[in-house]
What we know:
The complex is a heterodimer of chains A (414) and B (437). Chain A is mainly α and 414 residues long.
Amino acid sequence: MRLPKLRLHWKTVLLFLTVAGPGIITSNVDNDAGGIATYSMAGAHFGYKLLWSLIPIMLALIIVQEMSARMGVVTGKGLSDLIRERFGVKITVYLLFAVVLTNFGNVIAEFAGVASSLEIFRVSKYLSVPAAAVIVWLLVVKGTYRSVEKIFLYACLFYITYIVAGFLAKPDWGTIGRNFISPDVAFTSESIGMIIGLVGTTIAPWMQFYLQAAIVEKNIAVKNYRLARMDVIIGSFGVTLIAAFIVLTCAATLFKAGFRIETAADAAQALRPLAGKYTSALFAFGLLNASLFAASILPLSTSFVVCEAMGWENGVDKKFSEAPQFYGLYSMLIFLGAGIVLIPNIPLFPVMYLSQVLNGITLPLILVFMLKLTNDKKLMGEYVNKKGYNIVAGVTIIILVALTVVYLGLLLGL
Amino acid sequence: MFNRGFEMRAEENIIVAKAENSGHFLFISEILNRPILSASGDSLGKLHDLKVRLDEPFPRIVSLAMKKRREKKLLELDWGLVESLDTNRIGLAAEAENSFRTLETAPDEILLRDELLDKQVVDTLGAKIERVNDIHLLIVNKDLRIVHVDFGMRGILRRLGWLRVSDKIMNWLFSYRSEEKIISWKYVQPLLSDPVKKNLKLNVTARRLHALHPSDLADILEELDQVNRSSIFRALDLQTAAQTLEEVEDPKLQISLIESAPDERASDILEEMAPDEATDLLSEFPSEQMDRLVRTMEKPSRDTVVALLKFKEGTAGSIMTKDFFAVTADTTIGQAIEEFRATTFPLESVAYIYITSPDGRLRGVSTLRHLITAPKDARLGTLMNERLVTIDPQDDVEDVAEIFKKYKFLAVPVVNSERMIEGLITLKDIMESQFEE
Lengths: 414, 437
């Protein structure tokens, strides 16, 4: 009687394929312009020194994303929706201000990514950024985004180039290993800021809202929850692996050569061992794809989050007159975000990096709410947090707050 | 939109007129968290919540919930012991202090802050889901009642404490005052979050949902989360549930709704649905589950569904309905009218009357008009039109659509190779099949 068992197995695989998606898509969007910039700078400016931090970051990422996914499956509601129902309108409005502001920073970073990637091809940002803003806006409003999403996803295969380039650059595996066993952290504002940035870009606050919404939209039954969890774990592992190879590749090439990243063309040099004279073009393509991908999701997700909590009509299937707040906020995020990148001489790469530091500073705030909600028995029933989750999430919050305090202290010269 | 505005205003005027005699309005946000004072003026705690019993059109507040400093547990006090109420304090009667008890809610009672404020409700007038920003209360002779619910921006601003400032700014800049968006309690269907008590409570209040058109109900279900969706669906009566299920466009959602009901209710709903719609839905299920559902259905509908399930998707047989009206050629108009009265088929299925030979073969067609206008003793055989357009059950749906385009019929009969009527395809069936693509 082996046959039925095998059949069951295949059924599980099929079921997984229908449930999978939100976790893996979210992870790929996670490697956005800000992500590429932050990981590249971490490798180029600190060598292998910060590589170890990606291990605890991955653990926290899995725990946090799992909480979002679980809330989505069990309650069938979005994160901002739950926050509004549980904590009332006052707390929700002030929290949303922080979320919109942080996400706005990320939108700016995506358009900075567009600008800097196309600058490699000598396209002026005054041309590329307005064009990208209009394209992204139309893509979503005209409802063609779904069909383009697949192209974005396939283009994410670009990240594999970092894995290949990482091996070709012949990194010093011995040093890497030693750094993992005995990590040393220099307490300078630069390195602490970079750690906050690494956490903030990997566990971005907006991802938690986006992932939960995507899970809700998929209508996954509670009994299939463990498959959704698999999806999240695979996604989290994938994103960290790629992050690690970006850091590693940049460390083995740029850091070794004593190179500092100021522009996209600098960051592109990390791929030279692989791509030779096509290096710049390859990197520009990857960065452009990542920027456009996230730029189409992020403003949309932000508008959803706000409208859902406030009880305003939302959705791209609605007319402008039916959902004015939704379209208003969506358009404002895109065009204002693109507008800021057009300020003459704005340093594009630092902008991308700083938006991720802002993510890291806002994250603990979101985590506090997520922890409260996932421990609410009335809401989650038997799916409340297990103790281990609370410990990992709690420690993440404490460390992030501590790092932020030290970082701000060092910046202000206290 | 305009109609609704007028209706609301007219209704408010009535309540306002009443209120001017004896009472006044206030918003729940204006009294929540205000101090509760004993008769001697000591502060006992803060007003945390109000409890209503849902037994009247505009429910009365039956008790309040008080929160003491640094204590988690809420204390309940009958509303009758409240002596005075304004936006600064709640004053209690002398005997109140010994009457506090632990807070409890019965199935027909709800806590306004805990279960209504900031939650989603169905606005049955606008047929939409809205979020409650504030609750409008009316005091008449010491009784406090819910009269309106606030869905608007002003409600949010009031809760945030920004209303006065924003009004001043808007007035100074544009001489404009943002509009109230409040709606009478009688159009509000709470959704309630506590899963244990919810079903009971929904049954108490779900009557309002039946005022909605099934297609609006379907839209609302599509927009709701899984938990609320299935509990609302459970609260609907069989007929409404069946009609709503027909209107739901996403087959996945239809399946999850049917699955959320116990098997017996699921099959009752399927029996209540038009057989072609029920068949479409059943064919979406995995075969084991489909068989089980079909087996639990009762005789006449089950046979129809089983017969319909035999036809492949995309054929005329798969979209046809079994609701048709046929009589033999020697039936008189009078007899036919009697038979017609006994049918419960939807109108589009009885626009034409099919006339058969005694052995059941289709011979001709007559119309509803003849039943009404022809003399009672005339036989249908003499009134019928023998030139017929028919469809074979195996015909492609696309070809059937062409027939409807060409002849503009309201319905076309489906006959098998022996010219026996198998069913009927109505204009509605063919429209649905075309719009699905």
